[in-house]
TrEMBL record:
It is found in: Cell membrane. It is a multi-pass membrane protein. Its main location: membrane. It comes from Dyella flava. It comes from the Bacteria. Residues 20-266 form the MacB-like periplasmic core domain. The lineage of its organism: Bacteria, Pseudomonadati, Pseudomonadota, Gammaproteobacteria, Lysobacterales. Residues 315-432 form the ABC3 transporter permease C-terminal domain. Keywords: Cell membrane, Membrane, Transmembrane, Transmembrane helix. This is ABC transporter permease. The chain crosses the membrane at residues 21-41, 314-334, 365-390, 402-422. The keyword Lipid biosynthesis does not apply. Pfam families: FtsX, MacB_PCD.
Length: 439
């Protein structure tokens, strides 16, 4: 009977090609609009490190005090150098790494190649195992090189390709600004999106992979300025020079810690509270600083990593899909009710309401499948053209894959079935006696 109903539906659709085309386009365009914006939203809100996101945390310390709260300032997103180094020395986490973005100029060994600017991060050795960074060659440096303030570097696969043609460059030297660095590792293609450990610099959240990583201690020795955000609220009276900057309450260092379970997270929160109390007792603050330990997923919400325009676009596209569904309901209702005489004859010959429902649902499924095919085509076009609406760094994250294709087909079928519910119910309740008498 299903095959019979499908044949009836195909004949009915062929009988009214214009009406059929309108229904297919309504569903296809509505589904495509939703799937295109969903592809972008999914990309920017995805879990950047699924296997470890529940173990990664950001410590926050309110060194600005209650007065800042009255001025609308929230707890600082970053730490001062003093606090970051104190937490690093305590080492209460399985892995931990202080991070700040830096920029250098590469001077190639080939004199025919002009120097060029690169961006990277100064961090600690535990950065790489904590974030599961994969290596094509070599590895990260170790803790002894952090302590020795060694001039070592881990470079990206892109920079390795640019300088060494993609060959194993471990042990070779790279010249950054006025200093030589020994390459200890070359990362594989690794650039988690969003770049969760660097969301304080919004322009880098969805940008390309960092070009290099150098030891935090070495960067500080060279008095390398941060290439990211900083805030010196309440630190106007700091001492001049680099040491004054390090000793100030300016916040510019990010700190990430890996805590394997709930007990470890609870213990670290207690440690943070104790540290804040010690700083107050030492006279650094005349208030007890609030402390927070924010998980990765919560951190992305706090930092508003998902651009508001992607969320708004998703809501608008869902609203557009609803409008398309309403139009489809009207078209299906007109189509089904024009066949009232046919329905009356079938009912008079013994067809039940259930069989009428099955017949028209089968026809709606065919409309949904055709709408799904149209939706796939329009979604593909939408993904290719998404750069006209969103920033290039965000637009390049959206792409067609098998899951998006399947979801497009399923949404199209669900939309067509939803749109068919009321018209099918009306068709199933046609009175055969009245139809036979009037016709």
């Amino acid at each position: 009977m299903l095959a019979y109903y499908l044949r009836l539906g195909l004949r009915s659709l062929r009988r009214n090609p214009i009406l059929t085309t309108l229904m297919v386009l309504a569903i296809g365009v509505g589904v495509a609009a939703s799937m295109t914006t969903y592809a972008v939203f999914r990309a920017v809100s995805a879990n950047p490190i699924p296997g470890k996101s529940g173990q990664l945390f950001v410590p926050r310390i309110d060194i600005w005090g209650p007065q800042a709260r009255t001025q609308g300032r929230r707890v600082p997103d970053m730490l001062s150098y003093t606090d970051a180094m104190a937490l690093m020395r305590a080492h209460r986490a399985v892995n931990q790494a202080a991070i700040y973005p830096v920029g250098f100029t590469v001077v190639p060994q080939d004199s025919s190649v002009n120097p060029f600017a690169v961006k990277g991060d100064a961090t600690y050795a535990e950065f790489f195992p904590m974030f599961d960074a994969p290596f094509a060659y070599g590895s990260g440096w170790d803790a002894s090189e952090d302590e020795a303030h060694a001039a070592v570097v881990v470079i990206s696969s892109r920079l390795n390709q640019q300088l060494f043609g993609g060959a194993d460059s471990v042990g070779r030297t790279i010249h950054l600004d006025d200093h030589d660095y020994r390459i200890v590792g070359v990362l594989a293609n690794w650039n988690p999106q969003p770049r969760f450990y660097d969301v304080n610099v919004y322009s880098r959240t969805f940008s390309g992979a960092p070009d290099f990583f150098v030891p935090f201690t070495h960067a500080v020795d060279l008095q390398t300025d941060t290439n990211g955000n900083s805030s010196c609220y309440g630190s106007a009276g700091r001492a001049p020079g680099w040491q004054g900057w390090l000793q100030s309450d300016c916040v510019w260092v990010s700190l990430w810690v890996q805590l394997p379970d709930t007990a470890a997270a609870r213990a670290y929160r207690s440690f943070l509270k104790g540290y804040a109390a010690e700083q107050k007792a030492a006279g650094r603050f005349d208030w007890l600083p609030e402390v927070q330990l924010v998980g990765l997923r919560q951190w992305m919400d706090v930092e508003e990593v998902v651009p508001p325009e992607t969320r708004m676009s998703l809501f608008l596209s869902i609203g557009f899909l609803l409008v398309c569904l309403i139009n489809t309901i009207g078209l299906l209702l007109a189509k089904f009710m024009r066949r009232s005489a046919e329905i009356g004859v079938r009912r008079a010959l013994g067809a039940s309401r259930t069989e009428i429902v099955r017949q028209f649902l089968a026809e709606s499924i065919m409309v949904g499948l055709a709408g799904g095919v149209a939706g796939l085509l329009f979604t593909g076009i939408g993904v290719l053209a998404i750069g006209l609406v969103f920033e290039p760094d965000i637009a390049r994250l959206a792409h067609m894959n098998l899951s998006l294709m399947l979801l497009t087909i399923l949404l199209s079928l669900a939309a067509s079935m939803t749109a068919a519910f009321y018209p099918t119910w009306r068709a199933a309740n046609v009175q055969p006696a009245w139809q036979l008498k009037s016709n």
